[in-house]
Amino acid sequence: MLKKTGEYKAMHLRSAIGYFCTALAFGLAAAPAARASVLDDVKQRGVLNCATGDAIPGFSYLNPKTSKMEGLDVDLCRATAAAVLGDPDKVHFVIVTGKSRFPTVTTGQADVGFFSTTVYPVRESAIAVDFLPINFYDAGGFMVKASTGVESVRDLAGGTICTIQGTGTEVALANLFKSQNITDIKVLTFDSADKVFAALGSGRCNAMATDKTALAGWRGSSPKPEDYKILREGTGKSPFAGFVAANDSKWRNLLRWTVFGLFQAEEWGITTANLEEMKKSPDPVIRKFLGAEGGIGEGFHVSNSFMADMIKAVGNYGEMYDRNLGPKTPYYIDRTGTPNASWVNGGLLYSPPWD
Q: Is residue 86 helix, strand or coil?
């Protein structure tokens, strides 16, 4: 009896093990393949889909005079295409709004977003995006018609402030009104900045609220900039960064270091003009940075020349800034003494070491 019981247990154990192995085999066969990185998709497609805007002068703007896209965010799209594909023109601009920018990236319609987007904790925790390094430090503000004599938000009592739907400005305005017990100002939203500016010009709104750099851009691009005034009063910090869909470290890490590389190139004084000369630098770290001797790109699954390709295409961060927001543009915003200067000049733009 004991012998039979032992044999039964052994048979039962062998059957259980066999069933488990069969189930495991079927499970492995049925399991979906590991999700490919966006980097693999971009390389296979041969074109970068970059989410950006077309109505923010200085950042992401379709210039009506040239019919070309321009701005700091546009250059970041082109820099990314150069880093990944070796060609800044292999980019398709996916035009988005404040409401559509995140779904466009998280659903795969775009590979990355550069759209004057403020970094907030809820955007990473609830929307499932990962932010790249901050590339511009801004602040929220207000613009009014100069003829109104308005000097502060409280002067707008009984009036209407217009802003863009789906942006942090909506939340910032609500917080400002609560903190200062303002109850007699209405907020009207539109789906794009150009509609907000048009509403201000037509008198439908008494003030336009958005990031101060955007306000400066709209004022600078208007036929009579002197007709508009940006108030000194603001709504708080607004640091801008690009973003990608969450949980794709292969793609995110590459793009993080491309942004850092643009900062580092400015710090080292590497420009489009002296790029070939700098490849012969006596500093081995610079030669490696540019892919002239060894390189870093292979570890990120791109060419070792990815940094040199970016600099050749768009320049270093300082060159990008000057081209889009420098003193020779209508949207000039001085970097001197601001967080947007390189850290060596007292700013906050800083790259980790490249040794």
A: coil
Give percent above pLDDT 70 in the chain. 90
Nearest by Cα to 221 from 95, 319, 325? 325
pLDDT of residue 35: 61
Q: What is residue 267's three-state secondary structure?
A: helix
Q: Which tokens sit at 262?
A: 């643009």
Q: Which amino acid is at 346?
A: G
pLDDT tens across 269-290, in order?
A: 999 999 999 999 999 999 999 9
- Residue 55 pairs in a beta bridge with 61
φ/ψ (deg, to 5) at 128:
65, 50
Average pLDDT over the chain reads: 89
Sheet holding 91-95, edge to edge: 91-95, 48-52, 112-113, 228-245, 129-145, 207-211, 160-164, 186-190
Q: How far apart are CA 99 and CA 170, in angstroms?
A: 12
Identity at 233, one-letter amino acid code: E
| CB count in 10 Å sphere of residue 10 | 10
Q: pTM of whole model > 0.90?
A: no
Structure tokens at 231: 């108030």
Which has the closest alpha carbon to 243: 96, 142, 343? 96
CB 238 within 8 A of CB 139: yes
pLDDT in tens, 312-354: 999 999 999 999 999 999 888 899 999 999 999 999 999 999 9
Lookup: tokens for 55 = 């109505």
Contact call for residues 231 and 151 (beta carbons, < 8 A): yes
Looking only at Cα atoms, what is the longest distance across the chain?
Answer: 105
Q: Are 308 and 291 in contact (CB under 8 A)?
A: yes
Q: In angstroms, what CA-CA distances link 300 with 230, 262, 290? A: 43, 16, 14
DSSP category for residue 156: G
Count of CB atoms within 10 A of residue 248's CB?
A: 18
Q: Which two structure tokens, joined as six digits, stand for 325?
A: 């927001």
Q: How far apart are CA 239 and CA 6, in angstroms?
A: 71
